[in-house]
Structures are given as C-alpha cells and as structure tokens.
C-alpha cells in the first residue's frame, strides 16, 4: 500500500465527478470524469482504498487516463451516500480510519481483522468481530483515526499489545515509532489505546476509530 501520508485534498468534492451510471445484475458502474484523479500510481492507490472503504460492494468506479482504463471496487460501504453527496465530517473520519488502518509501509498485502472501536454503540454489523475472528486474529495492533480527507490532514495511531518484533515480522510497522512520536507511516503515535488518547486537538475521534487485529 502507501509509503507516504495521503494527500487527498480534493476527495470530498469527488462526488460531482461521477457520471454515466450503468446497472447490470445489481452492480452499478460509474465513470470518473476527471482523468487527473487517476493520473499516477499513487493517486490510483489512493482511489483504490478510498473507494473500497467508502462505497458498498455493488459499486464499481471506472477511471480513464490516456489510453488506460482502471476499475476500483467498493467494499466496506462506510459512506454509501457519497455518490450523491460530499462526505460529512463523521464520514470523512471513519473512511480515513479505514484507509489508515489498511496502510502498509512496505506495500505488502497483509490480512487484518478490522473492527469498530469497542467503546462505540450501534456499530455496523460487518465491523463486529465474530467468535471465530477473535480466535483467528487475537493480537491487537492498535487503533487508527484522524481525518486525511481535508486540507489539514491528521493521522493518529494508538498502540495495542503487539510488540515490535512481532509487528516487524508481520510487516505492520505503521504503529511503530521512527522519530519524535511519529510512526514509519508518518502517523502521530498518541500512546496506548486508552479512552483519553482518542481525544486529539480537542476533537474526540472515539466513534470513528477503527481497531486492527492480527494473526499470531
């Protein structure tokens, strides 16, 4: 995935660029009109994980750049109305948390268990951890939160019970410090995942934070 902090200054305006929706077997294919949004490998990576986090599975976004065509699939559906409306502040934060949680410094695909913060009530069903998931993914890496979908990007991580040797063996080092309380992925490390550490710069992110669990 990404090696650098995201720079998505235009994402919450992206809804105005959707066009030409097609419906085939309940799958909606939409075209992204602004070619510049898919003009580089990094931007396509950003689009891939943004769309995967924000939109439901029945959406596929098609992007053209020069002579190439790219497809980005929805998955988590954390902001399903994004097609018609720009993201509100809570949606920006939960989608940001999803993207941050899936960031991998090495660009490797590592299976994780993604769950809504345990302090939160009325969480989406798909973000509940099943009994089997708790058995298969028992190691708490940490929680990711912030808002990277504004001009004033903020990315935070609090740490769980995984040690450095284990995290390095799993190629998950975005919660490990490299310098001055910042991680290898340039996320600010705020300490352990205690209730008070979800409040940063007088903003309480507890309801839009996402936990990451790993296999032994």
Give the amount of beta strand, in percent. 25-35%
- Quick check: average pLDDT? 85
Largest beta-sheet characterization: 5 strands, mixed
Q: Portion of residues in helices? A: 10-25%
Secondary structure tally: strands: 13
Q: Total domains, how many?
A: 2
Uncertain spans: 1-18
Shape label? globular
Order of helices and strands: EEHEEHEHEEHEEEEEE
Number of helices, counting only DSSP H or I runs of 4 residues or more = 4
Strands of the biggest beta sheet: in what spatial order? Answer: 5-13-6-7-10
Helix vs. strand class:
alpha+beta
Rg from alpha-carbon coordinates: 17 Å
Structure description:
- The protein has 216 residues and is α+β, with helices and mostly antiparallel strands.
- It folds into two domains: 11-83, no CATH class; 105-214, no CATH class.
- The chain has four helices and 13 strands.
- The chain has helices at 41-54, 89-101, 131-136, 164-169, and strands spanning 18-24, 27-32, 59-65, 68-73, 113-116, 139-147, 154-159, 177-179, 182-183, 188-192, 199-200, 203-204, 210-214.
- The strands form four sheets. It has a five-stranded mixed sheet. It has a four-stranded mixed sheet with strand order 1-2-3-4, covered by helices on one side.
- Helix 1 (41-54) crosses helix 2 (89-101).
- It is globular, with a radius of gyration of 17 Å.
- The two termini are 22 Å apart.
- Residues 1-18 have low confidence and may be disordered.
